[in-house]
Design a protein that fits this description.
six-stranded mixed β-sheet
Length: about 375
């Protein structure tokens, strides 16, 4: 292992020297982007070679209707928060590193069972392994939503967390750009069929060649920068949804100003001001978690007899046919229509087809062909 580490350290120094000696200009921008990626990956490999032990890491089994990870610095209040919003008892104390393992719990909201994980605290340098950060972040990737738990008195820690995730090519509250790179036979070279990236075709071709792609048809339908395109082509980029739980607001009278500053800096992220210890705005946070997960809860009602309603959790934008498919695959083929009452229809009870888009709180009765 030590021999491998030595080889990697030599490689890292060579990459750093090349980066340092390459003057920045328009012509070298892409090459510098490639070097940045290689330097970051080599640093991570050195950490792994130094610290990896058999059995190290966390295993997360996803359960429930959705999964949420509480992410933050040590002593930000994650353990106190999970005790408030989920059915669990995570150890709490007024000192750092109380949580050394991942603590699961279940948050019940609108007849949904949302799995919540209290993650061990992250620190600066987590992306290269500091404080076990790499294993924590790897486990975090299974979540459908990140809740950044930020101490209102240490609001700058959000900037650090964002930088740590960015260093691992995790993009927060951004949609994956619409692009396709279809490698072809050796006679076609690189053909740019659609380019809305904001970069010239020549730069895209150079990036692909630097990453070993010499024959492909390329369609980029959205704006993308050099570093993001490199990460996308290398298939080492993740897109995750997140909100901020600005905690301990009972200890800082300027909490509204701090929340506004975060919102101004990170316009795409929702900030919920809370106090986990005092129970302030806990229900509001549950509501915002549910909204950010982009799910809906509908209720299935039998046509005759049993009046009990069965809850079903769907992705937002799902239609009657989607619900039928989840309920029972045979119903999809036999589905004639459905009766729906609730927010998605204009009057009391309406007969709709399979393409009818459902909304949160709808009550649905499937009608099969006779």
């Amino acid at each position: 292992m030590s021999d491998k580490k030595g080889v990697l350290e030599e490689k890292l120094q060579e990459l750093k020297d090349e980066y340092k000696n390459t003057k920045y200009n328009k012509a070298t921008n892409i090459h510098l982007g490639i070097l940045r990626r290689k330097i970051a990956e080599t640093k991570k490999e050195i950490i792994e070679a130094s610290k990896r032990r058999k059995g190290e890491g966390f295993f997360i089994k996803k359960m429930g209707d959705a999964t949420v990870a509480l992410v933050g610095f040590p002593s930000a209040g994650k353990s106190s928060l999970i005790n408030k919003i989920a059915r669990t008892k995570s150890k709490t104390a007024q000192y750092a590193f109380t949580t050394t393992s991942i603590i699961p719990g279940t948050m019940l909201y609108k007849d949904t069972h949302i799995q919540v994980f209290d993650m061990p605290g992250l620190i600066e340098g987590a992306h290269i392994g500091a404080g076990g950060g790499k294993t924590i972040i790897a486990a975090m990737k299974v979540a459908d939503l990140i809740v950044f738990v930020i101490d209102v008195n240490q609001a700058h820690q959000l900037d650090t967390l964002m930088e740590e995730l960015k260093a691992l090519n995790i993009r927060i509250n951004k949609q994956r750009p619409k692009l396709s790179i279809a490698e072809t036979d050796s006679n076609t070279s690189i053909i740019i069929e659609v380019n809305k990236s904001g970069m010239p075709d020549s730069d895209i071709i150079l990036i692909l060649r630097e990453l070993g792609i010499h024959n492909a048809k390329v369609r980029i339908r959205e704006k993308v920068d050099v570093d993001e395109l490199i990460a996308l082509v290398a298939e080492k980029i993740y897109y995750m949804k997140a909100i901020v739980a600005l905690n301990k607001i009972d200890t800082n009278k300027n909490h509204q100003k701090i929340a506004d500053e975060i919102s101004a800096k990170y316009g795409s992220i929702k900030v919920v001001q809370i106090s986990a210890t005092e129970g302030i705005n806990i229900e509001k946070l549950k509501e915002e978690i549910y909204k950010a997960l982009d799910i809906i809860t509908i209720y299935l009602k039998p046509r005759m007899g049993d009046e009990r309603l069965m809850p079903m959790v769907l992705e937002s934008g799902s239609n009657v046919g989607d619900a039928a498919k989840i309920f029972h695959t045979e119903i999809v083929d036999e589905l004639q229509c459905a009766y729906v009452s609730g927010p998605s229809i204009k009057f009391g009870k309406q007969r709709v087809g399979a393409a009818h888009v459902l909304k949160d709180g709808d009550v649905v009765t499937f009608i099969k062909n006779k």
